[in-house]
Design brief:
Low-confidence stretches: 68-79
Radius of gyration: 19 Å
Mean pLDDT: 78
Largest sheet: none
Order of helices and strands: HHH
Distance between the termini: 25 Å
Amino acid sequence: MKLFELENVQLLKKSLDVYTKQHEAIAKNIANANNPDYKPMNTDFSSVLKTRMAESLRTADPRHIGQPKSVESRGSASGNSEVDVTKEMGALAENQIRFEFASKTLARVYRALSMSITGKDY
């Protein structure tokens, strides 16, 4: 088993990439809020999340918690081309919280690995 290729570590790294892309898309939507010709970028990654969860969440026992039945979507179903700055700012704050959680968790994993290799707590 390779220490830096653990499934959880890889998932955390990928989540940081997704949160970064989502942040860029939301920021672009906010920056172009006053542009009438701008079509907002869809920042709803729930379909990607559903696919990833279906791949990684397997139940071996009927008592295990199964896959969620639905993932809440914040995308516009009407195809409205206007940017709602309030919703975008809320999505930005939520995305920031998720990014910070993933980065702190990844840092904790690396700190534990370092401590187990060197025997020192930094």
